[in-house]
Design goal:
Elements (H helix, E strand, L loop, with lengths): L16 E4 L2 E4 L18 E3 L2 E3 L11 H4 L1 H22 L15
Antiparallel strand pairs: 1-2, 3-4
Bound molecules: zinc ion (2 copies).
């Protein structure tokens, strides 16, 4: 007996069968949940037993992306900006700054 396609719920015949994420799919039904881009065994990302493309993989932003040095740097930068820019707006321009710029005033 042939299994059912997890996407369109029709029978999958061996010739078009894709076995992935513990389910069976027509090769043409194995597409990104978000953009419907055609996927294959090499480029899909499984999440919640559903296939996603690289761009739409839901947890990519939390795990894969956050781990890269570039993104850690960007994250640190944006945190720094959000904490530093706010007080510098309320602070008088020069008076409370030690050293360098004091003589400038
Ligand atoms: Zn199908
Ligand atoms: Zn996608």
């Amino acid at each position: 007996m042939n299994p059912m396609c997890s996407k369109c719920e029709r029978v999958v015949y061996p010739v078009e069968k894709l076995n992935c994420l513990d389910k069976f799919w027509h090769k043409s039904c194995f597409t990104c949940e978000v953009c419907q881009m055609a996927l294959n065994m090499r480029n899909y990302k499984g999440f919640n037993k559903r296939p996603y493309c690289n761009a739409h993989y839901p947890s990519a932003t939390f795990t894969v992306v956050a781990d890269t040095p570039e993104n850690l740097r960007l994250k640190a930068q944006s945190e720094k900006q959000s904490t530093v820019t706010l007080p510098s707006f309320t602070r008088p321009t020069c008076s409370s700054r030690p050293g360098v710029s004091e003589s400038h005033c």
